[in-house]
Design brief:
With about 400 residues, this protein is mainly beta. The chain has one helix at about 1-15, and strands at about 25, 40-45, 50-55, 55-60, 80-85, 90-95, 105-110, 115-120, 125-130, 130-140, 155-165, 180, 195-200, 200-210, 215-220, 225-230, 240-245, 250, 275-280, 285, 290, 300, 310-315, 315-320, 330, 335, 340-345, 350, 355, 360, 370, 380-385, 385-390, 405. It is about 5% helix and about 35% strand. Residues about 1-20 have low confidence and may be disordered.
């Protein structure tokens, strides 16, 4: 009898691989977009000898004047370089300066989210075993000095690396119901499609691109979309919306509403200036994308709590430079998970269904966690989050700090 069991066991082994083979999908070149002038990236699976380029995107702070354009003058001409890739096994990342000036020191934050880091021949090498969002400080720009109140040094050029799990069931051009938008084409807001696919390249949808319920919007990793998106404050048109991919939605070409001279009603229409704003959000999700240079609040998904119909914010990356450029407000029905938020106003409102596994970074203003809207009717947890830099242009302002429960009057 033993020999039959052994024979059966050997047959089973033959149906399974004897070694694990990971897959790695780096972001290719974005057609029509110049890569970062500060850093370049290569990636490879651990154990492989073949390196692949991974496109270096960059988010910029314009010359700041809070009375003219809402950018913080203290951050004028700062940049943040970032890259995305998909992985399902250990990955090694190489970082180099584009001017070939040698890197002397590299520090990962959060430190526990990378297995190792080293410098070889003026380049930094980092190993990540699983999907995560990390910042890498180069030569002590953030670690060795206080870049908050009183900083008078040159512009600082930082970077982050975003390792994402594989995106399953990606839409494909040619599939039924998938409408592909090529660079230069006008993206439709209606039509016989269920998925709008922004193809590789540079897109312009303008201020207030219209979203609809029961639709999907896919930004491929090699796409950057300039503009803002909203559902026109229609409470019956915010359910089952999915915005996803590894592309970038940038507000860099949209004015802050207070300084938009082309729209005299701008301060009465701020919802058009939120990078993404959806009301009536139920079973809605925003996943993977980067939101760069929000002109006003970055993401607002307004909805009341409904069990089993959560709105999810997952693996998002936010880089904002202006006043009022708050990060994510989940309202009563949102769950925030595994996001990276670098904001120059408040990062998150602690509300909704909880916050897990996020990284926070403030430079000039605001709080990481605003507690004013804490729900009173149900418990909420904030767990496994990391505040890697909490800086401010002023240290004694009551609106700052990591945790803040600002009084709104009334007393006891």
């Amino acid at each position: 009898m033993l020999k039959y069991y052994l024979h059966f066991f050997l047959i089973l082994i033959s149906f399974f691989p004897t070694s694990y083979s990971s897959s790695l999908i780096p972001t290719a070149k974005v057609p029509g977009l110049t890569p970062s002038e500060h850093y370049a990236f290569r990636v490879r699976s651990v154990g492989s000898s073949s390196w692949q380029d991974c496109f270096a995107m960059v988010s910029r702070c314009k010359k700041g004047d809070r009375q003219k354009n809402a950018y913080f003058s203290e951050l004028s001409h700062w940049t943040h370089t970032y890259t995305n890739f998909e992985m399902d096994g250990p990955v090694e990342i190489e970082i180099r300066r584009t001017n070939n000036q040698p890197i002397k020191k590299a520090i990962v934050r959060p430190a526990l989210w990378a297995r190792s880091q080293k410098i070889v021949s003026g380049r930094a090498y980092i190993i990540m075993d699983k999907a995560a969002n990390i910042a890498v400080d180069i030569d002590g720009q953030m670690e060795d000095q206080d870049t908050g109140k009183g900083y008078k040094g040159p512009p600082i050029h930082t970077l982050s690396i975003h390792a994402n799990p594989p995106i399953l069931n990606k839409p494909l051009p040619g599939q039924t119901g998938v409408h592909v938008v090529q660079p230069g084409e006008t993206a439709p807001t209606e039509g016989d499609w269920h998925t709008l696919y922004f193809a590789p390249g540079v897109h312009h949808v303008g201020r207030g691109f219209r979203l609809h319920a029961e639709r999907k919007y896919y930004l491929c990793a090699e796409a950057i979309v300039y503009g803002t998106m909203h559902n026109n404050e229609k409470w019956d048109d915010g359910h089952n919306i999915r915005i996803y991919g590894l592309g970038t939605l940038s507000g860099a070409k949209v004015h802050h509403p207070r300084y938009d001279t082309q729209n005299k009603q701008a301060m009465n229409e701020t919802h058009f200036y939120n990078t993404i704003r959806i009301v009536g959000a139920q079973n809605t999700s925003i996943e993977g994308i980067t939101v760069s240079d929000a002109p006003y609040h970055a993401i607002m998904a307004i909805g009341t709590y409904k069990k089993n119909q959560a709105t999810k914010f997952q693996r998002l990356k936010l880089f904002t430079w202006r006043r009022n450029a708050d990060g994510i407000n989940p309202f009563g029905n949102g769950l925030i998970e595994d996001c990276f938020l670098r904001t120059q106003d408040d990062s998150c409102y602690v509300n909704g269904l909880g916050i897990r596994g996020c990284v926070y970074w403030n430079d000039a203003n605001g709080s990481a966690f605003v507690l004013t809207e804490l729900p009173l009717s149900k418990p909420i947890s904030v767990e496994n989050c990391h505040v890697i830099y909490s800086r401010a242009k002023w240290h004694h302002w009551t609106g700052g700090r990591v945790f803040n429960i600002r009084g709104e009057g009334g007393g006891l």
